[in-house]
Design a protein that fits this description.
Elements lengths: L4 E7 L3 H12 L6 E7 L5 H8 L6 E6 L7 H11 L4 E4 L5 E2 L3 H11 L5 E9 L7 H10 L9 E4 H6 L9 E3 H9 L9 H13 L3 E13 L12 H9 L7 H21 L3 H8 L12 H11 L4 H4 L1 H8 L11
Parallel strand pairs: 1-2, 1-4, 2-3, 6-9
Antiparallel strand pairs: 4-8, 5-9, 6-8, 7-9
Helix pairs in contact: 1-2, 3-7, 7-8, 9-10, 10-11, 10-14, 11-12
Length: about 325
């Protein structure tokens, strides 16, 4: 395992968190390591932090400054297309690799060459990087990273539609990652990670991913991250249109229902009653939900003009249940 590995880190005006993310990379043992930072920031703080960062031997850090059109989607595309190593990882600027986590992910990928990449178990940490055991257990249970799924190769469609594949911290063959990034839809909304994963599955055919039992990545609960910017309507639309193998259409249906409810609550919270009404009355709305409190509320909202302060209640409630079973699929 002497080939260089690249880690792409998109960032936006969070130099302190970015510094911690990079530190989690350079403290891994694997060399040679190439870190590419794609900066969408409007300030020079990120560049200044990188200029002062002590880069150890065997590691290079390359800085890509803000472009004229700055978006998370465009940043992902330019980062992946900038890489020339055989394998590439994506790391969010507010997340980090667990100690030895990147090393273990690389090891898993090389030991399972039939798979197009590898990922592992995640830990949840708070804003100060303190581990949250209860949230960690529920998070991995929700996204099927528990004992019965570990140290196994899984169909990429299964991993993507169940969201078993995390939003970052994975390792992929660079050629496929480039193709998936370049083929991202023009407007993936706030779910760029899911759109990328769906394209990856679509373009890689009957490929597979290896899920190691090692703890490899830490997902930070960052205050203020993706609040009013959440928009699941584009990814709901994209998931409806993409061609998915018949064996995984039940998973597609379940994931569509989850994205649909999220999109409805977001539209209600913003006062877009017309779009919310169309979604509530669509065939994708799960029948079993219509007789539950959330479904009754949605049905009422589809026929009544509720004030935004009332319409946003289910959105606020669903956000507080971030790690509950409501986001899980049945397998």
């Amino acid at each position: 395992m002497s080939d260089p590995v690249s880690v792409c880190i998109p960032t936006y005006e969070r130099p302190r968190l970015l510094q911690a993310a990079i530190h989690s990379c350079v403290t891994q043992a694997y060399r040679p390591l190439r870190i590419v930072v794609g900066d969408d920031s409007r300030t020079t703080e990120t560049n200044e932090m990188l200029d002062a960062f002590a880069v150890p031997d065997g590691v290079s850090i390359e800085y890509l400054p803000r472009t004229s059109v700055a978006s998370q989607r465009d940043n992902i595309i330019r980062l992946f297309n900038h890489v020339a190593t055989p394998y590439v990882s994506l790391l969010h600027d507010d997340d980090m690799f667990a100690p030895s986590g990147m090393d273990l992910t690389i090891k898993a990928a090389y030991e399972n060459p039939s798979a197009i990449g590898a990922f592992g178990v995640q830990q949840i940490v708070d804003a100060s990087s303190a581990l949250l055991p209860a949230e960690t257990e529920q998070f991995n249970k929700t996204y099927l990273r528990t004992k019965e799924y570990l140290d196994r190769i899984h169909s990429i469609w299964f991993s993507v539609l169940s969201l078993q594949l995390p939003s970052n911290g994975f390792l992929l063959r660079t050629a496929l990652a480039k193709r998936a990034a370049t083929a991202l839809p023009a407007n993936p909304g706030s779910a760029v990670d899911v759109a990328f994963a769906l394209r990856l599955a679509e373009l890689s055919g009957d490929a597979s991913l290896f899920l190691t039992s090692s703890v490899t990545h830490r997902y930070r609960l960052t205050p203020g991250a993706e609040t009013e910017r959440l928009d699941h309507l584009p990814i709901y639309t994209f998931l409806r249109e993409i061609n998915i193998p018949a064996a995984y259409r039940d998973l597609q249906k379940q994931r569509l229902a989850i994205f649909l409810v999220a999109a409805i609550n977001e539209r209600l919270s913003r006062g877009d009653m017309q779009t919310a009404r169309e979604l509530i009355l669509s065939n994708d709305y799960p029948a079993e939900l219509r007789l539950r409190p959330m479904g009754i509320f949605h049905t009422a909202a589809a026929h009544l003009r509720l004030p935004p302060a009332v319409a946003r209640l289910p959105y606020a409630i669903s956000r507080k249940r971030r790690f509950t079973r409501q986001t899980a699929v049945r397998v």
